[in-house]
Amino acid sequence: MKKVDYYSMIFKRKSVKRYDLTPLDDNTLAQISNELNNLKPLYDDIKTEVKILSLDEVEVKKKKKQAPHYLAVFSDPKDNYLANVGFMLQRMDLFLSGNDIGSCWQGSSQPKEEALKSSDLEFVIVMSFGKPKYPDSMHRRSVSEFKRKSLPEISTVKNADELLEAARLAPSSGNTQPWFFTGDKSLIHTYTSKAYPKKDYPHEIIKRYNTISMGIAIYHITVAAEHFDKGAEILSDKGAEKNAPEGYEYIASLKIE
Description:
Elements: H1 6-10, H2 26-37, E1 48-54, E2 58-59, E3 69-75, H3 81-98, E4 102-106, E5 110-111, H4 113-116, E6 122-130, H5 151-154, H6 161-168, E7 179-184, E8 187-193, H7 203-227, E9 232-235, H8 238-242, E10 248-256
Antiparallel strand pairs: 1-3, 2-5, 3-6, 4-6, 7-8, 8-10, 9-10
Helix pairs in contact: 3-7, 6-7
């Protein structure tokens, strides 16, 4: 498998929902497994496991969304563990896309009982992956194909468009794009919406999906920062937490330098 330019993939990736159900070859799966071993967390103190499962090991509610393989994420349910999962697994989304392997976050699917029991950690979410049923639709041809809010709708930060554009294009549960950013180009504060406008979900589920999505957006910011020869350090800012915009709750801050 080839080395991936993660930044360029942000502008091309697409959630693939229809798959060729032929399993990937053993060599490809071994390389994907090796990539999993290289994942870097948002928070070093949160224990996680990511397992490659077959279709037979996963309960999929919508048959048309079946895939030959799944990445199942398990985590110690500590503070910020959901954002941590979103951050970590989004690297795999971009890695797979960069190697012409389709992938998609799936909130409605979960491992079957035996697979669930294979980990002592809490199951969080799965990501489907495999060769797309329609290879020509693997990637977007231009940014105009993304259905996303504009930057002014999601941010009050000045002079950081090159970083926040990457966050703007991130995938989210139901494409709800729950993120909001404040601060400045040196210190970006991230918030997630308390609402989930598309469906009447219980608050716990709303928070779960929105926080995972926020971790995905934060990963995109760190990729963009690296592309522009900058670092992005994760911080907790009590002032930013106290001054969350109405309807949002604080996740973390990113020191850019």
